[in-house]
Amino acid sequence: MKEEIIIAGFGGQGVLSMGKILAYSGIMQGREVSWMPAYGPEMRGGTANVTVILSDKPISSPIVNSFDTAIILNQQSMDKFENAVKPGGLLLYDPNGITSQPTRTDIGIYRIEAAAEASKMNNSRLFNMIVLGGFLKIKPVVMDENVMEGLKKSLPERHHSLIPLNKKAIERGREIVNKQA
Fold first, then answer.
1. pLDDT tens across 53-79, in order?
2. What is the C-alpha to C-alpha distance for residues 81 and 4, in angstroms, rounded to an integer?
3. What is the C-alpha separation between 79 and 137, in angstroms, rounded?
4. 150 neighbors 18 (Cβ within 8 angstroms)
5. Rounded to 5°, angle at Cα 54 from 49 and 58
6. Residue 147 contacts by C-beta under 8 Å, 6 or more apart in sequence?
7. What is the pTM of this model?
8. How confident is the model at residue 45 (pLDDT cuts 50, 70, 90)?
9. Fewer C-beta neighbours within 10 Å, C or N terminus of the chain?
10. CB atoms within 10 A of CB 48
11. Rounded distance, CA 6 to CA 96, Å?
12. pLDDT band at 43 (very low <50, low <70, confident <90, very high)
């Protein structure tokens, strides 16, 4: 098993955190893991992406040019990474701020209204966990108990009281993700 994932969006959307949780979850599951962030000098509002590789075998390089999965959270990332998904791969996106819908027919395209759902839950910071839940429903690359361990490892201890709320957001993401026709 080898899954090469790009998660891309604006700084402040939890892109790097989502990647870190996936990476820690993979470690908890005994997988080989690579986590490689890339972001501009701006923290919030600038573009950010992270490449995560989960594998049963040693990873020869963290640099990937085509991906099994792209999780896209803004239009700039859609423009940059839609064509980098391998044929037969997966593209998951939140439509908030996306002006040009994905057009490929050789990949699975899924939509998740995570920004709207986070707003309904009165907590915009749950956005990335809703997206993560949608992804894990489509591709359960790590087990749920390892995701919770990954969440504990990536969150500062002072925020561990938020883990149940994050778990609820992950579950909600699984409920609302939709395959596009």
1. 999 999 999 899 999 999 999 999 999
2. 13
3. 25
4. no
5. 120
6. 21, 25, 132, 136, 170
7. 0.93
8. low
9. C
10. 26
11. 18
12. low
Superfamily of domain 2-179: Pyruvate-ferredoxin oxidoreductase, PFOR, domain III (3.40.920.10)
Q: Locate 167 and state its tokens.
A: 């778990």
**Strands 47-55 and 67-72: what pairing?**
unpaired
Q: What does the longest C-alpha to C-alpha distance in the chain come to?
A: 45
Q: Which of 148, 89, 114, 149 is nearest to 9 (CA)?
A: 114
CA distance to 69, 157, 166, 174, per residue, from 66 (Å) = 9, 35, 30, 25
What whole-number distance in Å separates Cα of residue 169 and Cα of residue 148?
A: 12
Q: Which amino acid is at 7?
A: I
> What pLDDT does 122 receive?
92
Distance CA 15, CA 39 (A): 10
- Residue at 139: amino acid letter: K
